[in-house]
Design goal:
By secondary structure, the protein is of the alpha+beta class. It has a single domain, classed as B-lactam Antibiotic, Isopenicillin N Synthase, Chain (Jelly Rolls, Sandwich). Helix 3 crosses helix 6 and helix 4 crosses helix 6. The protein is globular. The model has no long low-confidence stretch (mean pLDDT about 90). It comes from Carpinus fangiana. It holds the Pfam family DIOX_N. InterPro entries: DIOX_N (IPR026992), IPNS-like_FE2OG_OXY (IPR044861), IPNS-like_sf (IPR027443), Oxoglu/Fe-dep_dioxygenase_dom (IPR005123), Plant_2OG-oxidoreductases (IPR050295). GO terms for molecular function: L-ascorbic acid binding; metal ion binding; oxidoreductase activity.
């Protein structure tokens, strides 16, 4: 399977090949109103006054409950590091197909995997997307080329992990749980971290193709960074909300759990390549994940989901086509 990037750069594409045509008509209602996406100042969790910290925890809870998505600012990850990361990712994709094929993973849990679409064995339509996946925790893995890329990835993952840990503690408290409840229950200090770099090359007919279709993510939360080109859309109140204007040096957070697991998608454009980096944070792969007993109302409905190993949940997601339905629906009781 040739990458989308190589097909675009061949100069032969004037239209979208039939296998990449995606029907968006059934779920393409774009919000016509200017939606205010929640923005969280992460620094207040650590350096704010007690009142400020209490307020930001409440804001996190509201954002998780109402949106399942929010923007974070003042997170402490240097903008220079983010820029270096984006440049390194672009350099990886700029290598020849032969160089990149060295990292073509065959299995879901291969340490490094380069490919296209989502799962070309089952995708009914192919997606306008090339990707590089790296399992960076508990054991760090990254491509050894281009030069210096692995070192940049390591530092970026270290700094972003610190941000994710701070957010998970805030989310835990917003649920009325002890600050480190989620961390301790799911052994997040030795948990898993999957970094996925997505490249969406310019598309000759963006209206008939899709970068990634409507779906939800796995893990506790996903931290997302992107270059200056918009493309992410999140579902809110039954309509798609484009995430076009986020503050400089900000991250986008997608959350899961009792809180809303937000449905989102990536659309493409005909002008330039878009790059996004999604980092999914989860428990160790063999940890059984189930609803916290403290959050289960036994008198009304009890637990809504069966416990499942995180590893098995990832297998379940990969074995099914990405669709608007959350993978959580497949473990619903």
């Amino acid at each position: 399977m040739f990458s989308i990037k190589s097909q675009v750069e061949s100069g032969c594409l004037t239209s979208v090949p039939p296998r990449y045509v995606f029907d968006k008509s059934s779920s393409d209602c774009i919000s016509s109103e200017a939606e205010t996406i929640p923005t969280i100042d992460v620094s207040l969790l650590t350096f704010g006054t007690p009142d400020q910290r209490s307020k930001v925890i409440q804001d996190i809870g509201n954002a998780c409950r109402d949106w399942g998505f929010f923007i974070i600012i003042n997170h402490g990850v240097p903008e220079t590091l983010r820029d270096e990361m984006l440049k390194g990712c672009q350099s990886f994709f700029n290598q020849t197909e032969e160089e990149k094929k060295e990292f073509s993973g065959k299995q879901l849990f291969d340490p490094i995997s380069y490919g296209t679409s989502f799962n070309t064995n089952i995708d009914s339509s192919f997606f306008w997307r090339d990707y590089l996946k790296m399992w960076v925790r508990p054991n760090f893995r990254a491509p050894h080329k281009p030069a210096g890329f692995s070192e940049t990835v390591r530092e970026y993952c270290k700094r972003s992990q610190e941000v994710a840990s701070e957010l998970v503690r805030g989310i835990s408290e917003s649920l009325g749980l002890e600050e480190r409840y989620i961390e301790k229950t799911y052994d997040l200090e030795v948990g898993s971290q999957l970094l996925v770099v997505n490249l969406y090359p310019p598309c000759p007919e963006p209206e008939v193709a899709i970068g990634l279709p409507p779906h939800t993510d796995h893990g506790i939360l996903t931290l997302l960074m992107q270059n200056e080109l918009p493309g992410l859309q999140v579902m809110h109140n039954g309509k798609w909300v484009p995430v076009n204007d986020s503050p400089p040096n900000s991250f986008l957070i997608l959350t899961n759990g009792k809180y809303k697991s937000v449905v989102h998608r990536a659309v493409v454009n005909n002008k330039d390549a878009r790059i996004s980096l999604g980092t999914a944070y989860g428990p160790p792969l063999d940890t059984v994940v189930s609803p916290a007993p403290e959050l289960v109302d036994c008198e009304s409905h009890g637990s809504r989901y069966r416990g499942i190993k995180y590893r098995d949940y990832l297998v379940l997601q990969k074995a099914n086509q990405l669709d608007r339905k959350s993978c959580l629906d497949r473990v619903r009781i």
